[in-house]
Amino acid sequence: MPLRRRSPRTGTAADATYERVQQLREPELSAEVSEDAVLMRRVADGEEVALRMLYERHAAGMLRLIRRLTSQREVAEEILQESWLAVWRSAGSFRGEAPVRAWLLGVARRQAHNRLRRAEPVLVELEKAADVPDLEPAVDEQVLARAERRDLVAAVAELPEHLREVLVLVLAEDLPYPQVAVILGIPTGTVKSRMHMARRLLTEALTKTTNPKGGRTGDR
């Protein structure tokens, strides 16, 4: 499923393995975060090369977030360009209170919301059906997979916007709550409560869809 966040098991040998992997990753991640911050300072000083380097690192993630707010690729790409223009103009306002990635996603979100206020947004599927299929998958499995994806997409699309964007940032973008709070400009506790509500509403909607009377049509 596209919206699935994996958590390590606790209280087992797997826990120690997970911690060790995280320790090995932390220096690399910290170096990348530090380099991003240096690039941001260079952008603030007017270095276009630094802006291009940040673009190469983060434009894809920003476009992915924007595409979840509009189904029109051309509009999404325009918003992305507007976002990077905003980054160029406002890089000096970056204070390093959150990772550069979170700050950039916040810029993209604001630009998308500014554009979508002027037009009725059309939500796009969280996961386009562009997955590479098995060479000879069973037809029934394909149909079931598509139905489940449709159910999930429909349920997410029905969520209120303030819950949907939290769900996307936490599960699809795999961002921690504090970074989501920075992007949305809300307290971390509010992010947690919205996430809890989004999960509850999704569970209720999917339960009704997949098991309206005790099972899917054709299960009995």
Automatic annotation (TrEMBL):
Keywords assigned: Sigma factor, Transcription, Transcription regulation
Record's signal peptide: none
UniProt-listed GO biological process terms: DNA-templated transcription initiation
GO molecular function: DNA binding; sigma factor activity
Residue span(s) of domain RNA polymerase sigma factor 70 region 4 type: 150-202
One protein family per Pfam: Sigma70_r4_2
Regions that span the bilayer: none
Domain RNA polymerase sigma-70 region: start-end pairs: 54-119
CDD domains recorded: Sigma70_r4
Superkingdom of the organism of origin: Bacteria
SUPFAM superfamilies per record: Sigma2 domain of RNA polymerase sigma factors, Sigma3 and sigma4 domains of RNA polymerase sigma factors
UniProt cross-references to InterPro entries, sorted A to Z: RNA_pol_sigma-70-like, RNA_pol_sigma-70_dom, RNA_pol_sigma70_r2, RNA_pol_sigma70_r4_t2, RNA_pol_sigma_r2, RNA_pol_sigma_r3/r4-like, WH-like_DNA-bd_sf
PANTHER family cross-referenced by the UniProt entry: RNA POLYMERASE ECF-TYPE SIGMA FACTO, RNA POLYMERASE SIGMA-70 FACTOR ECF SUBFAMILY
Family indicated by similarity: Belongs to the sigma-70 factor family. ECF subfamily.
Name of this chain's protein: RNA polymerase, sigma-24 subunit, ECF subfamily
